Amino acid sequence: ASVMKASIAVASEAANAATRSAKVAEDTLTELERPYVLPGEISRIYFVKAPNGTKLGRVTLKIGNYGRAPAIHRLTTAKFMMLSSLTKEAMKGNNLPGEETYDTWPDSIVIGAGVIVDSGEFGIPERFPIEEYEGFGRPVPGNHGHLYLFLATTYEDVAGIVRTYRSCWKFQHPGVTLIRWGGKEYNSETKET
Fold first, then answer.
1. 153 near 164, Cβ under 8 Å?
2. What angle do CA 186, 192, 193 make, to 5 degrees?
3. 1 CB-side CA count, 13 A
4. Which candidate among 4, 144, 178, 187 keeps its CA 20 to 30 Å from the CA of 28?
5. What is the DSSP letter of 69?
6. pLDDT at residue 162 in the model
């Protein structure tokens, strides 16, 4: 009887090990075969004319699916801020009135694997002074710090898992463009549970 109990224990442990191994393989395949939706290729700042004749600064961006499975884009949110330096404390506010604004591109569209799509326009707040320079816009030098753009792109995979990729961009001169800025603290993905 004790030999049979030992055999059952060994068989049970082998079955548990096989189950764990299958789960690791499934999780690995799920991570490899999932979509990875990221913003990129932000346009230079350009101007549109408001009904009152004011020039308004705008940017567009491309959103790409760099994974191996399709995704459903749910929402991209843009938040512009003028900060003297990129810190969590500065992001909470530096007592300047109206220092931030949100703009969204709410289109739900399917983005296939390896596909890059254009987003809508994102408006730079009028209270952030933008001047024309070499045919494009740039923040007026010497003003309240640096222009940052914080993006949050939310998408869903075919299994119904919703993820949000957050990224930080900083206006860089020369180059007159926004470049990805900051480390993992400002550029990361979260999964809704």
1. yes
2. 140
3. 0
4. 187
5. S
6. 96
